[in-house]
Write a structure and sequence with these properties.
5-stranded mixed sheet; Aminopeptidase; 97 residues; alpha+beta; 5 strands; single chain; 26% helix
């Protein structure tokens, strides 16, 4: 597991996106904002070149950490994000519901 990914985040009033770039390949996780305190993770995309390197998990972990720090809850509509959060009980405090 590589914890050294540099993850960037951009957010507008309605949407947000995390991305990391390794060796010219970009992995991303996108979300929609649902009010001031909830985000809906709707997509995680990891190119084949980065599969198995922990990129997707790193993106979800960063989303969880940011949500916790900002007092937000997460609705993981993306199957990958949902599975990652289910696999990590220590992340489940940010689940909405």
């Amino acid at each position: 597991m590589d914890d050294t990914f540099e993850i960037t985040r951009e957010e507008t009033d309605s949407k947000g996106r995390y991305e990391l770039v390794v060796d010219g390949h970009t992995a991303e996780m996108t979300y929609s904002r649902a009010g001031a305190t909830t985000i809906i993770i709707d997509h995680t995309g990891v190119p084949d070149a980065l599969r198995g390197r922990g990129a997707g998990q790193a993106l979800v972990r960063r989303g969880v950490e940011d949500a916790r720090a900002e007092g937000r809850k997460i609705v993981p509509l993306c199957p990958f994000a949902k599975a990652q959060i289910a696999r990590h009980p220590e992340w489940q405090d940010v689940l909405n519901g």
